Amino acid sequence: MPRLNHLAIMCQDPDRLKQFYGRWFGFEELNRTAGGTVYITDGYFNVALMKQGAPDLAERDPRLGLHHLGFQIESIDDVRKRLEAFDRSMQITERPKGGYAEYRVVDPEGISIDLSEEGWGTKAEMRIPGIRHIATANKDSQRKFAFYCQVFGMRDAGRSEDEVDQHIAMSLGGEPGPDLRQQARVGSAHSGTQGTGVRFAGDGFVNYALLGPRPTEPRPGVNHFGLLAREPYELMHRIAEEDFIRLDQRPPDRFAEYRIWDPEGNALDLSMHKGYKVDVDQTDRIAE
């Protein structure tokens, strides 16, 4: 089955981001291009740090930030058939020779999805720290959810009400009463699995959050990503002391416990005990 294991970031200084992710999360360099793009990995994900303005970039969107995603696939013919069944107007195009990606499709709201039959050059190791979560901001999360499930075989990884309550209890340090549970849910787009504008999909390895429209997130596209990491509270404070980054404690009902921003302002969540639900009945977390 297809696996979500590629993330691309358009950045000003790929080497600075490489050093940041290498020092704090153990990411290693895979490859680099003559134009300055650096590919790094956590063991499973291929992360492209694309240098804005580089002459060898075949990208129409030059905006800085989290840029596009990619899947490793078994057969482009199978993906093409499923795409045609979903929407005949959508097309798969070929990518320039010499890169990891061989094909590209654009999802229903314009996010580019690179496809590779050969793979992304990683060892497919699920390490800790490691990426377990990707989130995109969408106008119609229901249609996007249908697209990723039908075309790439992702499955519903939405949380039950009991699972949301468990996450709230983890954040608050004990079983909250009904009033506190309700207070923790007020105003949250992540409180339930239906009717909130948010859908969660999984491929058995990664949780993919399809966020609904929110005024606080005006830019559509790839919104943030999340890592499974040990002792995230201590880790984010060590990072903040040395790299002077922003940090935040997430609302009690979210998957992740904390959020930080890398040196170029890209948001990444950190989770340990809550973890990320990566399939219908599978959550990847670090036990006590």
If you had to describe this structure to a student in words, what would you say it looks like?
The protein is α+β, with helices and mostly antiparallel strands. The chain has 2 domains: 3-116, Roll (2,3-Dihydroxybiphenyl 1,2-Dioxygenase, domain 1); 130-284, 2,3-Dihydroxybiphenyl 1,2-Dioxygenase, domain 1. The protein is 23% helix and 31% strand. It has 6 helices and 18 strands. It has helices spanning 14-25, 76-86, 141-152, 161-172, 178-185, 232-243; strands at residues 3-11, 28-32, 38-41, 46-51, 65-72, 92-94, 103-106, 112-116, 130-137, 155-156, 199-202, 207-211, 221-228, 247-249, 258-261, 267-271, 276-279, 282-284. Strands 2-3-4-1-5-8-7-6 form an 8-stranded mixed β-sheet, with helices on one face. A hairpin with a 5-residue loop joins β2 and β3. α2 runs antiparallel to α3. The model is unreliable at 186-195 (pLDDT under 50).
| Physical arrangement of strands within the biggest beta sheet | 2-3-4-1-5-8-7-6
Q: CATH-wise, what's the superfamily of the largest domain?
A: 2,3-Dihydroxybiphenyl 1,2-Dioxygenase, domain 1
Main β sheet profile: 8 strands, mixed
Q: Regarding CATH, which class of the largest domain?
A: Alpha Beta
CATH second-level architecture of the largest domain: Roll
The total number of structural domains is 2
What is the radius of gyration? 18 Å
Outline: globular
* Percent range for β-strand residues: 25-35%
| CATH fold group of the largest domain | 2,3-Dihydroxybiphenyl 1,2-Dioxygenase, domain 1
From the N-terminal CA to the C-terminal CA, the straight-line distance is 32 Å
Question: Into which percent range does the helicity of residues fall?
Answer: 10-25%
Compressed to H and E, one letter per element, the order equals EHEEEEHEEEEHEHHEEEHEEEEE
Tell me the number of strands.
18
Runs with pLDDT <50, length 5+?
A: 186-195
How many DSSP helices?
6
Structural class estimated from helices and strands = alpha+beta
How confident is the prediction overall: mean pLDDT? 91
